[in-house]
Amino acid sequence: MSHTNPQKRNYRQRAHSNPISYRSLYHPIRPQSLNLGALYAESNLDKKIEFVDIGCGYGGLLTHLSPIFPNVLMLGLEIRTKVSDFVIDTIKSLREYNEISHAYGNIACIRTNAMKYLPNFFDKKQVKKLFILFPDPHFKKSKHKWRFVSETMIAEIAYILHEDGLVYSITDVFDMHEWISKHFNEHPLFAKLSNDEKEEYDWLKNLSNHTQEGQKAHREKKTLHYAIFKLKTI
């Protein structure tokens, strides 16, 4: 049986979105209101979402991690309409093709504004891995307020992150890497994972091969910058 995923060329959209202007995107009133049955296979409904991909793009990370962590629920949050549609359609296609094995029933994508509604989706200390991979750098200084990583967002991440959870960052923009590192390092609740944690960093570096932006950066021979952050022990 042949299988063809949806084609990205049919889901083209502008690369940049203004997260401040989106006012009516979906969000549950509270985490308990999130309908897992509409997102995941029935066998997963007794679980909680543990991996979160912020700005999941075309979903490469989700589809890569799904078979590696088959018992973990993962959720991608994406603000762009056509891009989120592509991920949703891709997951549906993969599930239909793998109907017998029930593969890919542990991943989902929602179109929403993570900058505004992140705590609406997750309970305190729920998330074990949070990915911020190739976030929009919004180069102009006047648009830095659109960048996902800020003092406010880091406080919200601290609330939903499990005490042993990790935040993973990859970018091919050095200024963006410095911005992310500065904000996390200066926040009283977070510390950068030491470079001596080679296994974690090697795993993160491998993930860059499974996102559209990462593949593009590799083709263009760009330098990638990696960082992992954890909650401080208080």
Explain this structure:
The chain is an alpha/beta fold and 234 residues long. It contains 7 helices and 7 strands. It has helices at residues 60-65, 81-97, 114-121, 151-160, 174-186, 198-207, 212-219, and strands at residues 49-54, 73-78, 107-111, 127-133, 161-171, 190-192, 225-231. It has a 7-stranded mixed beta sheet, sandwiched between helices. The termini are far apart.
Task: Present the secondary structure layout.
Elements lengths: L48 E6 L5 H6 L7 E6 L2 H17 L9 E5 L2 H8 L5 E7 L17 H10 E11 L2 H13 L3 E3 L5 H10 L4 H8 L5 E7 L3
Parallel strand pairs: 1-2, 1-4, 2-3, 4-5
Antiparallel strand pairs: 5-7, 6-7
CATH topology: Rossmann fold
- What CATH architecture do you see? 3-Layer(aba) Sandwich
> CA-to-CA gap between the ends?
54 Å
Oligomer: single chain
Radius of gyration: 17 Å
The strands making up the biggest β-sheet line up spatially as: 3-2-1-4-5-7-6
Mean pLDDT across the residues is 90
Helix proportion of residues, in percent? 25-40%
CATH class: Alpha Beta
Tally of DSSP helical segments: 7
